[in-house]
Each structure stands twice: as C-alpha cells, then as structure tokens.
Design a protein that fits this description.
This protein has helices at residues 21-28, 54-65, and strands at 4-12, 33-38, 45-51, 71-78, 84-85, 88-89. With 102 residues, it is an alpha+beta fold. Strands 2-3-1-4 form a four-stranded antiparallel sheet. A hairpin with a 2-residue loop joins β5 and β6. The mean pLDDT is 90.
Length: 102
Amino acid sequence: MNEVHAVIELKITPQRDSGFGRIAEKVARYEQVEACFLMSGAYDLLVFVKGDSLQDVAQFVAQDLSTIDGVLSTATHFMLKTYKASGVLDMQGEDGRLAVTP
C-alpha cells in the first residue's frame, strides 16, 4: 500500500486566552497528522498529513479540519515525488538506478 502525503495550510482565528494553541492542539491530535507547526506569513498553521489515498486526505480535510471552530480556510498540497527527505537525497531514476547527468 502506498501512502499519500500532503501539506495543508490553515488560516485560523486566535482564541481568547489560548491564542493559536487550542486549535493547534486539536489539529495535532488527529492520527492522520504527522506534524503541525505555527507559522509566520500568509497562513497560521502548517500541517503534514498522510492517508491511504488522495480521497482519504481530501475527506479528512473537508470533514475534520475545515469544520473545526476557528478554522477560516485550508489549502492542500499533495506531495507527488520525493527528492530529499530527512537530509537524505532520493534521486533514484524510474528504473531504480541513480540518475546520471553530464
């Protein structure tokens, strides 16, 4: 089984007395969530998720994340191919050999 990985940007409304913490903790408790970060910039939380299929992740976003009180919007980006992860290059060609360039 191939897992599907996605990065989701969330815009949220800070909560009185807890700021972003209450919503971030709620998001982080889902089993699909591998990591959750408070970010500066255009969105507030960056969430890394995994699922069994594109539909599985899309359903999680639509039914779980986007319905949390205080979540204003989401943007989902699916990871299509890995070139480097955890500091390790993964530059294998389609046939399993290392790609060679001049």
